Structure formats: structure tokens, C-alpha cells
């Protein structure tokens, strides 16, 4: 999969994504990450890409033309352009739809994806109307620019590309797939700072271990993300377990 990031800070994105699993996947040729500097498409001699907003107001806006020229150049590089097709273009801004795992899975099906990072107070609406296919935010807080959001999206999408994770099953059985958070995990030693590993994990009884893990997932989800539980599919026994747990935690 090929990611193209349109940004005023290409180093930030490249540095951030070249380490760890995503960097290794790029070295293996499973994906490519190409950060393009919008400033290279400035059309005046000062290389400026921003200007005052019509109607007044705080701050500066990114102008339409450099963003558009940068987009045209990126499209020329993509495979699809030879067939006259244009890749999806995601504009990262707090005004977008909130990113989630389902969207990551949807985007992971694409061969090419362009991510546009805004700065200053935003981008001239007219170019957004012409080129953006998806408006995405990563959560309800305000960042100084779209770069960190683009990196978050790329990380979440890239790990779903076949071969990127060592273990093909691990992407499947994780949090959110079944609308439950992950259970706690333990490794050696058996006792650390006086704390024991839960004895059931040493029992070798796989069915009991599975049951315990499901229950731990249910407890965590009830505590931290009760909103997720509505979609989780619990057996009747698990529903009873949850009711008991809630009763007991009300008492204590
Ligand atoms: Cl995508 N951009 C900015 N600037 N702030 C954000 C965001 C994006 N998502 C959450 N906050």
C-alpha cells in the first residue's frame, strides 16, 4: 500500500514513521510512505503558502493553489493515474468524522491513499471541495496540525496490511474486533514486587483460562468503556457475570 502525505512538515512524518514495525514494513516493500512538501508548490518568490482569511478573523489560511498543485503532482505519481483514476484523499482536521477501527479496515483495502495535513487556521474551502473525498479527525481535542493525526491513521491502517505484523492472527483477535477491551497479560517472573500471576494462568486448563480472560475483558470494558458493551455479544452466562460484577462493585 502506498501512502502519500501532503504536508508543510515532511520530516516530521518521515522521521515518525521510519522506526519500528511500520519502518520495517517499508524496508520489506510492503508499503511506501512518501511525504511531499506543499511549500514546493508555492507560486510566489517568497515560497509563502498562507494568507489572511476574507471576512477577517484570527490567524492565516493555507491557500488553494499550492495545495492543488501539490495534489496534481502526487496524483501523477500514483499507479491509478494511468487509468485516469484518482486515489481517495483524506483531509485531517477536527471537523472530520472521528477515526475508528472500522474506518482503518476500510482504508486498508485501498492501494493508494493521500493524506492532506492542514496548518494555521485551515485551508481555503474551494480546494477542499475539489479534491477531498474523506474528512477525518482523530478525536475531540485540537492539535496544531494534521501531521500527528496522519501518522496515527497510517499506523492503524498499515498494521492491517497483510505481512506487516509477524503474526497474522494478532490483528484479528484484538480489542474492538469483538467490542471488548483486551484482558490483562503476565510474563515471567511468577512473583514481581510481591504480586503473583493469577494462579489460573498457571493451571494449564485452557477452557478455564479462556473463560477467565473473557471475564477480565468484560470487567475492563464495563469499567473503562461502558459504551462499547452495547455492541458486545455476551452469552447469557457472561451477562449474568456482568450483572453480578456490577452489583458487587456497587456494594464496595
Ligand atoms: Cl485530524 N487535526 C487537528 N489539527 N487536530 C485534531 C485532529 C486533526 N484530530 C483531532 N484533533
Structure report:
The chain has two domains: 2-166, SPOUT methyltransferase, trefoil knot domain (Alpha/beta knot); 191-251, Trp Operon Repressor, Chain A (Orthogonal Bundle), CATH 1.10.1270.20. The N and C termini lie far apart (51 Å). The model has no long low-confidence stretch (mean pLDDT 94). It is 38% helix and 16% strand. The relative contact order is 0.13. The strands form three sheets. A five-stranded parallel beta sheet has the order 2-1-6-5-7, sandwiched between helices. Strands 3-4 form a two-stranded antiparallel ribbon. The chain has a two-stranded antiparallel ribbon with strand order 8-9. The protein is α/β, with parallel strands linked by helices. It has helices at 10-17, 20-27, 64-77, 101-107, 125-131, 147-158, 206-224, 226-229, 236-251; strands at residues 2-7, 32-37, 50-51, 61-62, 88-98, 112-117, 134-137, 191-192, 195-196. A hairpin with a 2-residue loop joins strand 8 (191-192) and strand 9 (195-196). The site of 6-chloroguanine has 12 residues, from strand 5.
Provide a short characterization of the protein structure.
The chain contains nine helices and nine strands.
List keywords for this structure.
2 domains; alpha/beta; Alpha/beta knot; elongated; Trp Operon Repressor, Chain A; 252 residues; 16% strand; two-stranded antiparallel sheet; binds 6-chloroguanine; tRNA_m1G_MTases_N
Beta-strand percentage range: 15-25%
What is the tally of beta strands?
9
Named CATH architecture of the largest domain: 3-Layer(aba) Sandwich
The CATH superfamily of the largest domain is identified as SPOUT methyltransferase, trefoil knot domain
Shape: elongated
Biggest β-sheet, characterized? 5 strands, parallel
Uncertain residue segments? none
**What is the end-to-end distance?**
51 Å
Tell me the name of the CATH class of the largest domain.
Alpha Beta
- Mean pLDDT score: 94
Radius of gyration: 23 Å
The CATH topology of the largest domain is Alpha/beta knot
Residues in helices, as a percent range: 25-40%
Number of helices: 9
For the largest beta sheet, what order do the strands appear in spatially? 2-1-6-5-7
Structural class by secondary-structure content: alpha/beta
Could you give the order of the helices and strands?
A: EHHEEEHEHEHEHEEHHH
Amino acid at each position: 500500500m502506498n501512502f502519500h502525505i501532503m504536508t508543510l512538515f515532511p520530516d516530521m512524518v518521515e522521521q515518525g514513521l521510519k522506526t519500528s514495525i511500520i519502518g520495517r514494513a517499508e524496508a520489506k516493500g510492503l508499503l511506501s510512505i512518501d511525504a511531499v512538501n506543499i511549500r514546493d508548490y508555492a507560486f510566489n518568490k517568497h515560497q509563502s503558502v498562507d494568507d489572511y482569511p476574507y471576512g477577517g478573523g484570527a490567524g492565516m489560511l493555507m491557500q488553494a493553489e499550492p495545495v492543488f498543485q501539490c495534489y496534481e503532482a502526487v496524483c501523477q505519481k500514483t499507479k491509478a493515474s494511468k487509468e485516469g483514476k484518482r486515489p481517495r484523499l483524506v483531509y485531517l482536521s477536527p471537523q472530520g468524522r472521528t477515526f475508528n477501527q472500522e474506518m482503518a479496515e476500510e482504508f486498508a483495502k485501498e492501494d493508494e491513499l493521500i493524506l492532506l495535513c492542514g496548518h494555521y487556521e485551515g485551508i481555503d474551502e474551494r480546494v477542499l471541495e475539489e479534491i477531498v473525498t474523506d474528512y477525518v479527525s482523530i478525536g475531540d481535542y485540537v492539535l496544531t496540525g494534521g501531521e500527528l493525526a496522519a501518522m496515527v491513521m497510517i499506523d492503524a491502517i498499515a498494521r492491517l496490511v497483510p505481512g506487516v505484523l509477524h503474526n497474522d492472527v494478532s490483528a484479528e483477535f484484538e480489542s474492538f474486533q469483538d467490542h471488548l477491551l483486551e484482558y490483562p497479560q503476565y510474563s515471567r517472573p511468577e512473583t514481581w514486587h510481591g504480586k503473583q500471576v493469577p494462579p489460573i494462568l498457571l493451571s494449564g486448563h485452557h477452557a478455564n483460562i479462556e473463560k477467565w480472560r473473557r471475564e477480565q475483558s468484560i470487567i475492563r470494558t464495563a469499567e473503562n468503556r461502558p459504551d462499547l458493551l452495547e455492541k458486545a455479544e455476551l452469552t447469557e452466562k457472561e451477562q449474568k457475570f456482568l450483572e453480578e460484577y456490577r452489583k458487587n462493585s456497587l456494594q464496595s
